Amino acid sequence: MLQNNKRWLYIAVPIFFFWFFGQIDKMGISVIQTDPGFLNALGLTGEDKSAKIGMITFVFTVSYALSNLFWGVIIDKLGARQTAILGLGVWTVTMIMAGLSNTYEMFLISRIILGLGEGMMIPVSGKFISSWFNRRELGKAQASWITGNYLGPALGAMILVFLIATLHWQAAFFILAGFNLFINIPMFLYLTRNTPEEHPGVSEQELAYIRLTDEEDEVTDRKFTQDFRYWIVWFGMLIASFLFFGISIWLPTYLVEARGFAQEGMKNITSISWLFALLFVLACGYLSDKTRRPSLMATILFGMTALFLAYAIAAPNAIVAGLCMGLAMGAQGGVFHLSNLFIVKFSTPETAGRAAGLMGFTNIMGGFSSYIMGWLRDASGGSFSSSIIMLIVASLLGLLAYLFTLKKEAAETRLFNKAV
């Protein structure tokens, strides 16, 4: 079974852990910012506390998004393997810097540099998937690493709560640096290569399957920038980033301060919410290959997000409200997976890095979401209602955008079914 499926070991496994630990680095701040010791150490107190907390994610996502643009170009020149190792080195150093921070300003600088280092994650993953997998298995290939994107924070919430309780918030950053230094970097060094042709462990049979094409796959002459659906997906990712970062960054604080959960309850709901995202990813990975209707699925997911958020406001029960927020976040995890599938679908192996880099720029909206939600909360006397209403409006914008893709997708699906 493994003989002609080495790509799942050499590529899927490293990028799974790439995202597993990378997302704990990235999203773990949502848990750490609920720790009183962290807040007091960095002076995150006073009437503008929420806005200052939101600024932490804002500066990270802005640098993360902007760096996607140059990483997308670099990766098409340097290669996915070398780019991954370089970026991992940068963000390992920033984890150590964050743990040593004793001022708010120093911590902000560490998050800016972290964003610059982690900005290569989407281009690296898109490049590897485009180069190493047959286009007919893109849904499953994408799901194999996006699983790490959500399983990491799901388990990471438990890990970070334990580390903070038993050690210190600073120790959490040092241990995260160790994960990258001793697990991620060695895996990319010893398992991966830029292309399957370069890897001595890939058989001729497997290489032939990877390069097998059919008429639908012949897109080498098409530029992704000329397909209007790419730009609709790009706009959809702007909305999805706004929603996902807004919910995920503020969810632990929402549970503790707005719904009265203790640390244990907050940890459980937060972990379950990330598992919801994982389930949506797995379902989308299967259904996108099965139905060939990813745009329709994204439209439905945006509608579900709006409904879940609306019920979170109305629900009198704290557990139900928390789970609804988690389901809304999970639905946007599904949109994220479908968007990365579109990156590969609308590009070629030669342009995948640039297409992914441009798509990754949309993460800039996550920072605005985090900061705006913090500002609205300060202005509302600590209430999250106005912030959640804003997220509902954003969900409806995403739904409307994807409606314009459905007609062409339906026609393509009918043609494919007739051919089969």
Automatic annotation (TrEMBL):
Give the subcellular location: Cell membrane
Query: Where would you say this protein principally sits, based on its record?
Result: membrane
Q: How does it sit in the membrane?
A: Multi-pass membrane protein
User: What keyword terms does UniProt attach to this protein?
Assistant: Membrane, Transmembrane, Transmembrane helix, Transport
**Pfam families found in the cross-reference section:** MFS_1
Q: Which residues form the Major facilitator superfamily (MFS) profile domain?
A: 11-410
The family database entries (InterPro entries) matched by this protein are listed as: MFS, MFS_dom, MFS_Na/Anion_cotransporter, MFS_trans_sf
Regions that span the bilayer: 7-24, 53-71, 83-100, 106-124, 145-165, 171-191, 231-251, 271-288, 295-313, 319-343, 355-376, 388-406
Protein name (Swiss-Prot/TrEMBL): MFS transporter
- Source species of the chain: Siminovitchia fordii
